[in-house]
Amino acid sequence: MTTQAPLSNENLAFDPDALRQKYQLERDRRLRPDGAEQYLEMSGQWAAYAESDPYADTIIERAPITDEVNVVIIGGGFSGLLASARMMEAGIDGFHIVEAGSDFGGTWYWNRYPGAQCDIESYCYLPLLEELNYMPKEKYSFGTEIFEHSKRIGRHYGLYERTWFQTRVRSLDWDDTLKRWHISTNRGDDIRARFVVMALGTASRPKLPGIPGIDEFQGHSFHTSRWDYAYTGGDSDGGMTNLSDKRVAIIGTGATAIQCVPRVAQCAKHLYVFQRTPSSVDLRGNKPTDPDWWASLKDQPGWQKARRDNFGAVLAGMPVEEDLVADGWTDVSRRLRSMIFSTEKQLTPQQMAELAEIADFEKMEEIRHRVASTVTDDEVAECLKPYYRQFCKRPTFNDEFLPCFNQDNVTLVDVSETRGVERINATGICTGGKQYDVDCIIYASGFEITTRFERRIGFAINGRDGVSLYDHWRDGLKTLHGFSTRGFPNWFYIGNSQNAFSANMTHMFDSQAEHIAYIIAETQRRGGTTVEPSPEGEDAWVKHFTGMQMGNQDFQIACTPGYYNNEGAPMGSIAGGAYLPGINHFNNVLEDWRAEGSMDGLEIDRP
Prior knowledge:
By secondary structure, the chain is of the alpha/beta class.
């Protein structure tokens, strides 16, 4: 067997081998033996960080509910709102929503930190734009507009009357006699539901860094998802005048910090930003929506789905006539396609992988050059340069973050050498042999996204014979299409593993909501009492899914630690993860499955 020689490195402005070594070095110096366990679960003494609601105008008083309903959707963010809309279209009635917040919005209800903005263009991200005939104000919407759109969906579909707000699920228990789920809540409810759809999203439960002494700090502190405007003053646009005499620390430099750091820097007496791993910060380039362009879409029914599919295709490396979104997300894919079309050679898979790496190197070199050309202090600039593949961490897009490090009142504290902040004490933060006394600590430490499933959910789920879902999945996920699992009848989860992941979360939520609504509607239409995967259907899907994971596992292991790769230790079983051919391919699989009509891989039990 003959193999083609590796592609030439001639004419490159960088040394690929040197970058590979640098990436490996930066990864290794950030690895921690405790992995994802370095973060504190927000339970017990930390529960207030996750369960308090600083945005509630009033506390809703009501008696405990004891009722039987057809469907309960857990979560009132975009995944829950989309599940509701698609169920109504499928003719499913008798459904209710349980939502912990005081209104709809999910992550956009909780994340009202200053500068909050979506990094996916609004025409793809904001769901149901055609149905509601709503024109986003800008290409990239700010959090206030997204929250208002969530409420708009709730009003349009009459969902306020169906929703129990300020209510947190504490456990789900299957009753095989009643063929229903008992749903217990913090309100003392016993809701008996035929079907349960978990629509918790992927960023619903915040986490805290497990820094020694975190409970010793005598100043003020909060998590970015519970921004304390009573302390800072101002609102999500800024104007936090109460910070004018305050020394503030922000711990974390992920997507949230990229947006809130510049606003705090405008107001605080002094801001210390504690960074372990720099984010990739690309141009935002936001602009108002062109009304004429928007008006032209009315002659293109189905335009939003087409635009989402186009975005998904470009990110998956599929050929398209035009990149409709054409932003920082799709840039690497455009570069790669240009490289492929510039050669007449038949490329091997190895050479394709080399080209993808070169395209990635080029993009990240530009990101690092942007840092160097923006930040005037060379030492600070070097600390802000990301050395890893672009999709090792979620890329960010912001035009204000890097310049704020040229301000005299902003100090970057690099904690990569100590793999994080070493200690918090009564007056501030001690790390790298220095003490930073502060009045306020703001934790921009993110959410439980790829940690243990039990941590992410935060309540018990017990199926047939009282078996815990967490025990059932202890050695790896077992699902059909990622939505349901045997032994847990009539239970579905939007946004789980073993199905498609998309950078555009609402595309993923919408297609999954449509599929789950179809299964519930068909089960009822066919006279079924319960539906769950058959042993054969579940085994076949797990085998199909795990067969494509090995290459991705290698990529994730080589990445710098972060939530994408479970802090440098990808899931112990390759049964987790995402459907690698991409969201469009996965959605086609689901569409073909529905069109075939036999509900293959599912068992429907009839009375």
